[in-house]
Design goal:
With about 220 residues, this protein is of the alpha/beta class. Helices cover about 40% and strands about 20% of the residues. The protein has an eight-stranded parallel β-sheet. Pyridoxal-5'-phosphate binds next to strand 8 and helix 9. The site of pyridoxal-5'-phosphate has 13 residues, from strand 8 and helix 9.
Length: about 220
């Protein structure tokens, strides 16, 4: 099927109308991204800074670029001037760097805190304690050039639907709980970035507000 057809199938399958579709275009060439763009997609996700920056230069300016991968502090400067949302913030040090680069370009940069919800050891993300430490840290209210919009999580790669469901619902409960605490002004945990090609329907049932979908739109990738 073509990218256009994949997108239309995907949209039809969505059970949450307001859930934002982020097309994950990592490793995919410009013409493929343009095909999705011409089908109406404006939100694209990449997991490498250099690839994201190069594609942003070549593609229409009304695209909202999402940084979905692990971000190194020394690379924040390359995307700070234009990035729409950074999904994978997993340390205070990184957040401080984003704030600094936001200041330089006179922007308030939207971020999600990545939470470790999977059973696998390898996936990045904060545990409950680290998450609270960031959200309740005395420095955070002074950081005027970042805004924390919500949480991001990746479920375990498994065929066990119940495992995936409980991981997503756990993330949602955590977000709801935290929203009852006394959070600073630059935090409002509305967004839940969860769900990919294999598990987006479960994620939507568990309250996802944005799904990050690659292979179901663009086909399988040959490398990561
Ligand atoms: C690659 C990637 C996706 C998309 O994965 P698919 O299974 O191709 O939909 C989503 N989120 C992150 C963080 C990724 O790196």
């Amino acid at each position: 099927m073509s990218i256009r057809e994949n997108l239309s199938q995907l949209k039809k399958s969505f059970t949450a109308d307001e859930c934002l579709l982020i097309a994950v275009s990592k490793t995919k060439p410009i013409p493929a991204i343009l095909e999705a763009y011409e089908s109406g997609v404006r939100d694209f996700g990449e997991n490498k800074v250099q690839e994201l920056a190069e594609k942003a230069l070549q593609l229409p300016k009304d695209i909202r670029w999402h940084m979905i991968g692990h971000l190194q502090r020394n690379k924040v400067k390359y995307i700070a001037p234009f990035v729409h949302l950074i999904h994978g913030v997993d340390s205070m040090k990184l957040l401080i760097q984003i704030n600094k680069e936001g200041q330089k370009t006179n922007r308030v940069i939207s971020c999600l805190l990545q939470v470790h919800i999977a059973r696998e050891e390898t996936k990045f993300g904060l545990d409950d304690k680290e998450l609270r430490e960031i959200l309740l840290s005395p420095e955070l209210p002074q950081m005027k050039n970042v805004k924390i919009e919500g949480l991001m999580g990746m479920a375990t790669l498994t065929a066990n639907e119940q495992t995936i469901r409980s991981e997503f619902s756990g993330l949602r409960k955590l977000r709801d709980e935290l929203n009852h605490e006394d959070l600073p002004e630059n935090v409002s945990l509305n967004e839940l970035s969860m769900g990919m090609s294999g598990d987006y329907l479960i994620a939507q049932q568990e309250g996802s507000t944005m799904v990050r979908i690659g292979s179901a739109i663009f086909g399988e990738r040959n490398y990561h």
